[in-house]
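WP5 quarterly update. Target: Tetraspanin Tsp2. Source organism: Calocera viscosa. Length: 452 aa.
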Amino acid sequence: MADAWQKVRRASASSGPPTIPPRISTTRVSFDNDASRLTPPSVPFAASPSTSSGLRPPSLQSLVFQQSASSSLPSLASPSNSHLHAPSLSLNYIPAKFSRPHSPGSRLHNRKSAIQQLKTSQPRGGGRAAFALAESRMPEEGDEDYDGWITGKDEGKPKPRLRWNRFKWALFVTNLLMTAYTLTALVFLLLTWFNTLPDADVIRTANRSELIISTVAASLGLLTSLIGWSGILLNNRAFLAIYCVLLWVSFAFLCAPGYITYKRRAFNLEGKINSQWSRGIGVQGRLKIQNQLKCCGYYSPFVEATISQTCYARSTLPGCKAKFLKFERTALENWYTIAFALVPLNLTAIVVSLLCSNHITYRFGKGMMPQAYRLNMSSMAVLMDNYANVLAEQYNLPASSSDEGLRRPRTGSQGLDTLYYDKYADGPAPSIGEQSKSDSYEMEETKRVTAS
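Structure tokens (predicted):
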């Protein structure tokens, strides 16, 4: 093998063209396919004298992130750079556009001319086109669904009038209905607790558990509607997600008092009232009911009566059973009727929130790249390292422009240092045609030496 190398060197010295030692194993990419060509570089990452723009980066598809098994080039993403953060997921991710821009002030989603207007509008691209120069990847002030505050005038031009889409209107209407009935119910319940309404003492005494559950349901429904207003007016999908979950909880608390009151009225109401009068409400409870319903005792003043200024042994007031039973039947019937009548409104709010919460604006999310896919220093190191390897494989360039990597020899698959050196480290890189001539000359010299 050493004799063969000596013959190659003597033949190249006598012939005239520069000596180009053959390589045992080459990884140079063939230039037959035009799609795989890259711009011929000079010194890595330095501007070429013939062009002012310098070296153009390759497309994302050309950045194949596979390290050569026979390469010992210094890597920018080596363990020595372990202080850098982990590479982002954008290394293997080609993002698409998050939204379509619409001209402000036009109802593109409600007009038949929307398709034609979108065809004539300026495209913003998607996929790899999102990385083009001056390509917008963030919401702008001219966007239809821009989330910023638009007030006053800018440069003498009035701000475009904002428009709500149909999904936002649906959420607005359903949440408005929910706010109305929960607020109304809470007002009546508070008036009952404060003993302002007529016969409120009877309800507080005989139907205390139903009153507590109804108050919790109304309070929770009002809180849910307030969270819904925050999500609707701020275009916040996180608030709308919480709003959707709380709607189910409000639905459960809305059905609970309706079920309890219906069960109490439908199944042996008279027996339940008998037990409640004798053992449930106590002396003070019987006194409140007697004063409110203007009665004395249960059947008469001599049966389980609480003595007061109007109820005594010779009182002419009737017993409380008939009046109490009639009052409970009416109150419980109205109670579960109102509760079950509000169930369809709550179910409608749930369905609308499930279908429309993610479409509060036509933009998906905020139009921002997710945190896991944003570039960081480690990601840029991986990109530049693999880009340098692509250049080194095609043009015999080192992967680093440092002094250590300019003339760093390669190690073959057998662990032996091959006779490899950088042919273009001291000067500009040749064109593709010159590179092909150099390759042809190298092969001819190798064949001639082998034949001799």
